[in-house]
Amino acid sequence: MRVAKRRGCIAQLIGLIILCLVLVYGVAAITAPWSFHIGGVSTPLLSWSATGVLHTKGGNYPLYVFLYPGSHFSRLRMDGLRPTGGVQGSAWLCTSRGVSQYLKMSGTIYNGWSSTEGSVISFRLLEWYIFDTRPIRGYFDLYGRWNGTQLVMEARDSLGHTFRSGLKIEYASVTLDPGSYSEFKAACGSSSLKN
User: Domain limits of the chain?
Assistant: First the structure.
C-alpha cells in the first residue's frame, strides 16, 4: 500500500511539472514567439547567452550577457519600430583581470515577432548589489540590431551613470556572439586589464 501511495505522489508530481512546462511554453508562444529562435538558432530553453568585448572611451572590457523574455518593456517606438516584447536577464562586466561586476538587465525588443533576425533591441545594464541603499546606481544603455548569430550594439548618445567603483562607461560598443559564462571567465582571467 505504501509503494502504491508513493507511486501515486510521484505520478502527481510529474503531472504537475508537465502542466507547468506546457503553461510556460504556451505563454511564451503567445507573448514572445521570438524566444524560441534567438540569434539565428533554435533556443528551446527560451534564453540566449553571449560574450563580447565592450569597447569604451576608457578601455576594453570583456562582457557576458544572459537574456530571456521579460514582461516589462517600453511602449514607445524606436527607429520607427513598434515594441514587441520585453527582455530581462543578467550580465557580468570584467572590470580588471579576474574581477567582474554583476549587472541586472532589462529592455525592449522591437520588430521581433517570430524570431530576432533583423530586430532591434535596447537594454539597460544596471549595477547591482544585494544590500545597496544608494538611490542612483551605475548603469549604461546599449542599442543594437540582430544580424544572424551576432548582436551588434552601441551606446548611441547615452553616457550612463558612474559605478560605485568609479568606472564610467562612455561611448560604448560591443558585438555579442553566442558564448558561455565559462568562456567569459577565461577571457576575464587572461584580460590585460589591471587590478
Answer: 1-31, 34-189
